[in-house]
Amino acid sequence: MPIDTVERFLAALDPRHREQVQGLPRTERERLAEAWETELRQDTDLDTLSELSPAAAECEAAARVARKLLER
What we know:
By secondary structure, this protein is mainly alpha-helical. Helix content is about 85%, strand content about 0%. It has helices at about 5-10, 15-20, 25-40, 45-50, 55-70. Helix 1 (about 5-10) crosses helix 3, helix 1 (about 5-10) crosses helix 5 and helix 3 packs across helix 5 (about 55-70). It is globular, with a radius of gyration of 12 Å. The termini are far apart.
């Protein structure tokens, strides 16, 4: 069974950020997961990293989205 984007995003987050994001309403988690996917698609540095390690690229993109969340 495929996992949804929010679950993939949560899995890519470090434990501290994962806990923080899990406490958000579902709509906010969905918005962050969409931002994560956009980050993965649009950042060319992540393209290079993704070729070497897709999981590392997903983690880096998740960290970037989480940092933006904390900056608010």
